[in-house]
Structure formats: structure tokens, C-alpha cells
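Example record for the data management plan.
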Amino acid sequence: MKMNDYTQQLSPNHIVEQLKSWYREAISKNNSDHIRSHYVDLLNEVYDAVDNMRLIIKKNNQVEEDDKNDWICDYCGKSTFETDYDYLVSPKLHLECALHEELEKK
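Corresponding structural encoding:
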């Protein structure tokens, strides 16, 4: 689907079809070794890029999980990670828990 004169939108199907085309060229006995090698290199470049993106996503998800573990209320033991800042006294204390703690002290 053409968006304008300079940009063409690529869907996952377009990308997969292009990769299939490169694969066919890479295994074709009609192509020279040089041409087959060229298409193998293109495929490997894409595979490496996808693998790197997967690693980055995995690391980012792990960092978020590690961050979540640091956001545990000292009073109730529940997560404060998703709590709006207006309802926190600190990253480790819900406002409601702080109020309960104050009332217990009296």
C-alpha cells in the first residue's frame, strides 16, 4: 500500500514474502555460488537483527521485572509499582498503609 511518493508501508506479510523470495534465491541451483551466498548473507543479516531485537526486548522486560521487585510496600508487602504517585508516600509505602501505620501508633 503506497502512503506517498517516497514511503511504502510494509506489512508483516510483505516482509515474510520478501524473506521467502530471498530463501528461494539462496537455494536455487540456477544461481551461481556468489548469488546464493549473497542471499544467504541477506537472510543472516535479518536473522541477526531479529535475534538482537529479541534480546533487547528480553533484557528490557527483565529490567522492568527487577524494578517491580524494588517497589514493594514495607507495610503490606504488596506491589507499589502500578500505584499512582498521588497514592504513595514513597516507592515502598502506600499512602493508605502510612495512614494505617499512623493510626496503629496512637
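Summary line stored alongside the record: Residues 33-70 form the longest helix (38 residues).
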